[in-house]
Design a protein that fits this description.
There is one protein chain. The protein is of the alpha/beta class. The protein has a single domain, classed as Rossmann fold (3-Layer(aba) Sandwich), CATH 3.40.50.150. Helices cover 39% and strands 24% of the residues. The strands form three sheets. The protein has a seven-stranded mixed sheet, with helices on both faces. Strands 1, 6, 7, 8 and 9 form a five-stranded antiparallel sheet that branches. The protein has a three-stranded antiparallel sheet with strand order 12-11-13. A hairpin with a 2-residue loop joins strand 6 and strand 7. Helix 10 runs antiparallel to helix 11. 44% of the residues are buried. The mean pLDDT is 96. The structure holds S-adenosyl-L-homocysteine (SAH). S-adenosyl-L-homocysteine (SAH) binds next to helix 1 and helix 2.
């Protein structure tokens, strides 16, 4: 019998080390190049607001194929050459296989296994669909207590497990409700909040999950683009869970950072000019490619597609002005 978070960490480490995850799912930077481009411009505006520190770290957690960073750097090179000259690219990636793909797209990067190993100094840190891969624990309301979910012989099993980490019973939880905790994500939020508060900078998370914490079992496995049993074949499917943005925001505020969002991804990207930039790019392309670009932008931004469930959350040095896209 294994605790769910231990199982999930083991399964995902094996999965990312041995699979091409993009055979099983796709992500925003793979859907449209404009996603990474507008995030590059977002980073450039924040760099100006930070007082143009030189050098500055431009870091990304879980960069996948390196597409977001490559698109961001291309946009930065064309409109913010001084920022391009000042920035040093740092990538946080545990999978050797994905590191090799990233090196092909972003040759001048430096790699780290963990965020804590980033060198000190002002930083702009991006993370798209990174937190959803981090291991969660699940608790089920049974009577007057939470039972914890474990994995045994390819199945989820419940055990009454009153431990120091078990959450308190909230007033509105009913029998059978599932709640999830993700301590690694909260630790990352606190760590980055302390970092940007002490060294300057800003961190941006884009991921899927509700704006308000709510009960629900969000553990999901994708195999070949199809939902699969998360427990059946560890290492063969990508395991993810919804990100609890409200909990991240609380952890970051407690650590001293200014918190912006969570805000729906569609609103955030639209305010950053996703559609204007897509339109300008589309005009230079043959009709079929132009139509595909517009459709890709709609997929990222429409509320009933990726624009609603996905959220943007920024943790910033308290003296920085409102980062672009988060204006009330
Ligand atoms: N951001 C990319 C990839 C998302 S998939 C995109 O948008 O396409 C998740 C990424 O996080 C992969 O690169 C995976 O190898 C990495 N990853 C997962 N768990 C990690 C961990 N604990 N530490 C560092 N990287 C991790």
């Amino acid at each position: 019998m294994e605790r769910l978070d231990v199982f999930m960490a083991r399964a995902n480490a094996a999965y990312y080390a041995t699979h091409d995850p993009y055979a099983d799912f796709t992500t925003s930077p793979e859907i449209s190049q404009v996603f990474g481009e507008v995030l590059g411009l977002w980073a450039a505006i924040n760099w100006e607001a930070m007082g143009q520190p030189d050098p500055v770290l431009l870091a990304e957690c879980g960069p996948g194929r390196g597409t977001l960073m490559a698109d961001a750097l291309r946009a930065i090179t064309s409109v913010a050459a001084p920022f391009r000259a000042a920035l040093r690219v740092h990538l946080i990636e545990t999978s050797p296989r994905l590191r090799a793909l990233q090196a092909a797209r972003v040759p001048d990067a430096t790699w780290h296994d963990a965020l804590a190993n980033l060198p000190p100094g002002p930083a702009i840190i991006l993370a798209n669909e990174f937190l959803d891969a981090l291991p969660i624990r699940q608790y089920v309301r049974r009577g007057e207590a939470w039972a914890e979910r474990f994995v045994a012989a390819g199945q989820a099993v419940e055990h009454p497990a009153p431990g120091p980490d078990t959450p308190a019973i909230e007033g509105d939880a009913i029998e059978g409700d599932v709640i999830e905790t993700c301590k690694p994500a909260l630790d990352i939020a606190s760590h980055l909040a302390r970092r940007v508060t002490h060294h300057g900078g800003i961190a941006l998370f884009l991921d899927y999950g509700p704006a308000e914490s709510a009960p629900g079992n969000s553990l999901q496995a994708l195999r070949g683009g199809e939902p699969a049993n998360p427990f059946a074949a560890p290492g063969e499917a990508d395991l993810t869970a919804h990100v609890d943005f409200a909990a991240l925001a609380r952890a970051a505020r407690a650590a001293g950072a200014a918190v912006h969002g969570p805000l729906a991804q569609g609103k955030f990207l639209s305010r950053l000019g996703l559609f204007q930039r897509t339109g300008r790019l589309a005009r230079t392309q043959p009709p079929a490619r132009a139509a595909a670009l517009v459709q890709a932008a709609q997929r990222l931004a429409e509320p009933d597609r990726m624009g609603g469930l996905f959220k943007a959350l920024a943790l910033a040095h308290p003296a920085l002005p409102m980062p672009p896209g988060f204006e009330p």
